[in-house]
Amino acid sequence: MLLSIIFADMKPRDPQKIERIHQVTLTLVSEIGLAGLTMSKIGKAAKLGMGTIYTYFESKEEIINSLYQFLKRKHAEEVYVNFDENQSFTANFRAIFEIFFHNCYHQEEEYFFLEQCRTSHFLTLDSIVLEEAAFARINALLDEGKAEKAIKNIANDLLIGFLMGSVQGFLAQLRRQDLPLTKARTEEALALCLDAIKS
Amino acid sequence: MLLSIIFADMKPRDPQKIERIHQVTLTLVSEIGLAGLTMSKIGKAAKLGMGTIYTYFESKEEIINSLYQFLKRKHAEEVYVNFDENQSFTANFRAIFEIFFHNCYHQEEEYFFLEQCRTSHFLTLDSIVLEEAAFARINALLDEGKAEKAIKNIANDLLIGFLMGSVQGFLAQLRRQDLPLTKARTEEALALCLDAIKS
Amino acid sequence: MLLSIIFADMKPRDPQKIERIHQVTLTLVSEIGLAGLTMSKIGKAAKLGMGTIYTYFESKEEIINSLYQFLKRKHAEEVYVNFDENQSFTANFRAIFEIFFHNCYHQEEEYFFLEQCRTSHFLTLDSIVLEEAAFARINALLDEGKAEKAIKNIANDLLIGFLMGSVQGFLAQLRRQDLPLTKARTEEALALCLDAIKS
Amino acid sequence: MLLSIIFADMKPRDPQKIERIHQVTLTLVSEIGLAGLTMSKIGKAAKLGMGTIYTYFESKEEIINSLYQFLKRKHAEEVYVNFDENQSFTANFRAIFEIFFHNCYHQEEEYFFLEQCRTSHFLTLDSIVLEEAAFARINALLDEGKAEKAIKNIANDLLIGFLMGSVQGFLAQLRRQDLPLTKARTEEALALCLDAIKS
DNA sequence: CATGAATGAGACTTCATTCAT
DNA sequence: CATGAATGAAGTCTCATTCAT
Questions:
Q1: Residues B152 and B171 reside in one and the same domain
Q2: Nucleotide nearest the Cα atom of A51 (by C1')
């Protein structure tokens, strides 16, 4: 009747609700871990009925993967904001590094969520594969560095794994000791990374 | 007083069973993840009745922590087998690095289990604290390196975090692409690490 | 803050179900004893899924205590229906006695449940404490009797314990021999009680 | 061989062990309740292997019933120690009453155990029936009282139920308030009982 | 489309009893 | 006969998902 007409032009899916579910999931995981995450907690925190959540996501797994992919893409974009093809290799490396370093530290909830996912067997194949896509520009940058003989001739994937692992290991220690992220420490870490890869 | 007698811990009899439970847990976690681990799966895999397991461990949590601590200690020891106080800094660094690198790659099940535990909310305080103990000799080695002005003057914890993270990131890539661990790659990684920290 | 929202109690919706769970629990305990009571039996008897019960009660213990307190309050009220402050001591004593006597006999399930609870280690403190509240008017009545020198000057608690115990002992015998509760027997028991306490 | 000869004349059943199991069961039940009683707790407390216990008792139920019957008989005997057929009704009533009263209060463990059993569905028929046997002499005493027109003409069973219930109710209150058992209180209770039944 | 009570499979854990030593 | 480790059925409780309103 009337109601159906009135609501007919409403979007069948309210993107706000998706965002709310994402946000709530992120916060919950940071508070109780991925293992402690339950659908009813998501529902309560998002102030949505269980059924509503299932109109937006087919399953708990889908919520997790959807958020995972969203964050992955977001992080991949953010990291390049100061990237400029006209800059030197070192300048671009620093540009990327500084944001990655800064974000890893300050967007702790998000990186914590991603880490929990990675060790969780919740991720579907398309989430796992996603990884690669983000690295196009970094690959190009590293190739450029190699062409300039500025960096060691090691497979890009390995270099990227090395660099990301090292940053995360470094920051994990920082957090474990409640140390703030200072300019000096950023420079220390950058120096470690640059010295590592330079030829 | 009766009560105190009754609630005294049961003494397990067959140390083989503890080992079997550990082994089975390790394998199961590598197959189905820590979140998928259930007591009945452990029982079935170890060919023990559910109740038997509870003769040896008070809870699932205790199995996990017990295995975690066992592996931590084992790894901490292994890494030093070629360490020799009379060697140079670089020689000792290489000695430790090579084993750590090799073990991280080949004892994948064990390192995977430890990683799963670290992000799991299953670890008890004594498991978490354990971490520190293992690093005594590495700390000494790094101090020596700093005294020789061989390496950068950065806090040991951060260096260790950096190095372990970088090795694990490097190896994660290797595995993701099913690449074998060759002598050449070990040297590559060692070079990356040494160049990173040298002053 | 999210946490506080999440862990807020679920509000049950259907008060009928609470009643049904109470009723079924009462019947089950009379058939199989409190020790034989299991959640799955409650579920089956109430024709509710196991999980549903946990929407209304947090635990088995809570079901038991909830029913215990409900019955306690119900009995405490019932016993006073013919109580009238303008009546004489003896008339009021008789008024209370007759209903208590009658109810103890005919609401066997309920009194059996309460007795099982009392010896069970299931009762929480608030259930145990509840006891006292019910006796306010009886205390007043006994005080009145003492003032009139109608009854012995013995502490009210002891008198109440004596009277309730004696009635229950008397009725237990009646039931053991499948004897019906007649007017004559009620008078016999009343006479025993009145003669006991009169000074 | 030799051993079997040497031990051949040993009693196959060591009565000491039975006693120890009884004793330990009694204590355990008073500490943790009948519901908390487990075979392994009995074993630990009695310092006997589980198997040993099963050579003396077929089941947990048998231990409980065996102890129940033992205590019932013991109590039935004890109560008559000052009974003397040549004494007056009142003297004998007092003789029995005082011991019963005293024992109910001071052998709390034993009476607690019996009460737990009574509400437990553990008792076998022969334990339940046992009740009756103990009352032969009390029945005779009450008959004597009736013949003398000293007491009300109410069925003995009901009188006994009334009297035992009243004593236990009275003492339960005493214990609930941590009141000591004094001579005065014993006399109070005796007066209540005697006045109740006297014609 | 929104809701959240209902569901039941499955998780962890206990314990009476057995049986190999 | 003594032992106590081994067993597995059964208990309590959780939670992803559904469906009637």
A1: yes
A2: E3
The CATH number given to whatever domain includes residue A9 is 1.10.10.60
| A neighbours by CB contacts (3+ pairs under 8 Å) | B, C
Say if the Cβ atoms of D164 and C163 lie within 8 Å: no
Q: The pTM is what? A: 0.87
- On whether both B42 and B71 belong to a single domain, the answer is no
Domain shared by A48 and A123, yes or no: no
> What are the pLDDT digits (tens) for B127-168?
988 877 778 889 999 999 999 999 999 999 999 999 999 999
Residues in chain B: 199
- Residue whose Cα is closest to the C1' of E17: D59
Output the CA–CA distances (angstroms, integers) from residue B29 to A36, B55, B56, B114, in the order listed.
18, 21, 19, 10
A153 & A115 share domain: yes
Whether the Cβ atoms of residue C174 and residue D158 lie closer than 8 Å to each other: yes
E strand or H helix at C159: helix C156-176
Q: Domain of residue C33: give its range.
A: 2-58
User: Cβ contacts of residue A6 below 8 Å, gap of 6+?
Assistant: none
Quote the number of domains for chain B: 2
Which protein residue's Cα is closest to nucleotide E20 at C1'?
D51
The answer on B107 and B192 residing in a single domain is: yes
Smallest CA-to-CA distance from B18 within B39, B46, B50, B51 is with B46
Residue C117 has pLDDT above 60, yes or no: yes
CB-based burial label for A1 (10 Å; 0-12, 13-18, 19+): exposed
- Kindly list the residues of chain A whose beta carbon comes within 8 Å of any beta carbon in chain B: 32-36, 115-116, 119-121, 152, 154, 157-158, 160-174, 176-177, 185, 188-189, 191-193, 195-198
Residue D131 half-sphere exposure toward CB, CA atoms < 13 A = 17
Model pLDDT for residues D105-162, shown as the tens digit of each residue: 999 999 999 999 998 889 999 998 887 777 888 999 999 999 999 999 999 999 999 9
Contact by Cβ (8 Å): C108, C178:
no
Do both B115 and B165 map to the same domain?
yes
Backbone angles phi, psi at D198, to 5 degrees: -65, 145
Q: How far is A10 from chain B (nearest CA, A)?
A: 40
In tens, the pLDDT along C139-156 reads 999 999 999 999 999 999
Task: Give per-residue pLDDT as tens, D57-88.
Answer: 999 999 999 999 999 999 999 999 999 989 99
Looking up residue A93, the CATH number of its domain turns out to be: 1.10.357.10
**Percent of chain A scoring above 70 in pLDDT:** 92
- Mean of the per-residue pLDDT values of chain A: 91
Kindly report the backbone phi and psi dihedral angles of residue A86, in degrees, each rounded to the nearest multiple of 5, phi listed first. Answer: -85, -10
Residues near C43 by beta carbon (within 8 Å), at least 6 away in sequence: C49, C50, C52, C53
Q: Are residues A77 and A149 in the same domain?
A: yes
Cβ within 7 Å of strand E: which of B 46-65? 50-51, 54, 58-61
Low-confidence ranges of chain A (pLDDT < 50): 1-12
* Cα separation, C146 vs C144, whole angstroms: 5
Query: Is residue A67 within 8 Å of residue A113, measured between CB atoms?
Result: yes
pLDDT of D198 above 60:
yes
Long-range contacts of D128-131 (CB under 8 A, 24+ apart): D130/D69, D130/D72, D130/D73, D131/D72
